[in-house]
Amino acid sequence: MPDSGGKESIMSARFSRRGRILAAAVLVLMVAGAAAAQAGTSSASAILAKLARRAAFAQFVEDFWPVAKRAGIRRGVYVRALRGISPDPRVLRLLDRQPEFSTPIWTYLEKRVSAQRIAAGRARARRHARLLGAVERRYGVNGRIVLAIWGMETSYGGYTGKMSVIRSLATLAYRGRKRKYGRSQLIAALKILQHGDISVAGMKGSWAGAMGQTQFIPTTYGAYAVDFDGDGRRDIWKSTADALASTANYLAKRGWKAGRPWGWEVILPRSFDFRLSGFGRARSVRWWMKQGLRPAAAKRFHALDAQAWLLLPAGHKGPAFLVTRNFRAILAYNNSIAYGLAVGHLADRIGGGGPIRGKWPVRTRMLSRAERIELQKRLARQGFYRGAFRGHIGPVTRAAVRRYQHTAGLPADGFVSREILNHLRKRR
Ligand code: CA
Questions:
Q1: Contact 39, 110 (CB under 8 A)
Q2: Residue 98 buriedness (CB in 10 A; 0-12 / 13-18 / 19+)
Q3: How far apart are CA 339 and CA 345, in angstroms?
Q4: Distance 97 CA to ligand 1 centre (A)
Q5: How close is the Cα of 213 to the center of ligand 1, in Å?
Q6: Cβ < 5 A residues, ion ligand 1
């Protein structure tokens, strides 16, 4: 390790001296505060509380050092990164945020795949044609998909987040329900600093530590970021070449197969067993063709041997999509069907494709969190569901809904709606 023992111990001494000074200051203020409190001053107790919080955080930073050290972080890097940092209250507020209603997929797609984003994507495709071609040759990932992810994550590098990644992650590591995540990401972030790819000040991102134009969290950066422009640094903040190549590398490593589509919007035959939908057993595109599926826009399917799943993100009345393993690779970025479809659809639109043809059931009312929990509890009572009662609708809940629908003689599309909750309420 380049740091000499002498230098390290000086750093260490300076660091813990700061801690001692702070502790002494808190002690003095506690005495002053007690006196002020007796005099009935509330602002003094507020100052006191603030100082106590600061001291507790300084203690956390000191306690976390052995963990960082074991991970190979040098003391100097640790001290420079965490010096003078306090917990970020905005991070804690965002952490506790639990929206009452989830956004319907049609609203999400409308907002995320806007006319403006499509137009900007087409302009970027022209401007970065050579780079995208080079990235596609190297990693085998469709350039339009890379563009679409770039557009979805940061509006093509337009908004990459302004929060200090180290401060955000230190806050998450310090307290709240994402402490484990915060700690592992903080270590990974410190490794990036130690490697010299970016400065502490330049390491900006989201409240949850997603960084730069690709919005990689530090562990993803560590595993997948690449230096594509060859300047020796993996700069996903300022280098478009590094950012786009890093995204392509990530998808390639997560199973993207060259020359295959992400999927298609499809038209289903008149009578169809909806139990075949969802991320259950994959079947070849050829098999799906034999069931009577046809592409909604393209003339014919290709990659007939590719394994694929049928998704009905808004139930049997809404649009249907046949998706390949490449779609699952996109989900590595963000494990949400709405996100994956937004990326795939935006990529198609950048390539000149038209809007989704199926009709979204826009009048469907989404369930509130309380109603979603009620749904899970009712499904459990009927023996269809064994997951947690948190109101999160994922594959487990959807599979339970599908089983229930089948038993009740309803189209088994797994779509969570008002209708299905009302149906369950009538069952005793
Ligand atoms: Ca670079």
A1: no
A2: exposed
A3: 10
A4: 36
A5: 13
A6: 227, 229, 231, 233, 235, 239, 242
* 47 touches 33 (CB < 8 A): yes
Q: By CB neighbour count within 10 A (0-12 exposed, 13-18 middle, 19+ buried), where does 296 fall?
A: middle
Tell me 391's DSSP state. -
Query: 267 CA to middle of ligand 1, Å?
Result: 44
Tokens describing residue 20: 């001692």
Dist. CA 197 → ligand 1 center (Å): 9
Q: Say if residues 294 and 285 touch (Cβ distance below 8 Å).
A: no
- Residue 205, H or E segment: strand 204-205
Q: How far is the CA of 233 from the centre of ligand 1 (A)?
A: 4
Q: Where are the beta strands (DSSP E) in 228-356?
A: 263-267, 283-284, 294-295, 307-311, 320-324
Q: What is the rounded end-to-end Cα distance, in angstroms, of the chain?
A: 68
How far, in Å, CA of 164 to CA of 179, rounded? 17
What separation in Å is there between the alpha carbon of 154 and the centre of ligand 1? 19
Would you give the distance in Å from CA 248 to the centre of its chain? 17
pLDDT at residue number 325? 97
Taking the CA atoms of residue 377, residue 382, residue 385 and residue 390 in that order, the dihedral angle to the nearest 10 degrees is 0
- Torsions phi, psi of 67, nearest 5? -65, -45
pLDDT value at position 6?
A: 36
pLDDT for 33 equals 52
**Ligand 1 center–CA 231 separation, angstroms:** 5
**Cα 271 from Cα 158, distance rounded (Å):** 46
pLDDT at residue number 11 = 40
Residue 5: predicted pLDDT: 35
SS3 string, 161-199, reads CCEEHHHHHHHHHHCCCCHHHHHHHHHHHHHHHHHCCCC
Residue tagged 């994922």 (tokens): 394
Q: Residue 251 in 3-state DSSP? A: helix
Strands (DSSP E) found in 65-173: 163-164
Measured in Å, residue 385 CA sits from the centre of ligand 1 at: 49
Q: Which of 118, 154, 156, 153 is nearest to 350 (CA)?
A: 118
pTM above 0.70, yes or no: yes
Ligand 1 center to 329 CA (angstroms): 24
- Within 10 angstroms of residue 335's Cβ, the number of other Cβ atoms is 12
> Any idea where the domains of the chain sit in the sequence?
6-61, 369-426
What is each CA distance from 56 to 14, 176, 299, in whole angstroms? 18, 14, 64
d(CA 192, ligand 1 centre) in Å: 14
Positions of the chain with pLDDT lower than 50, given as ranges? 1-14
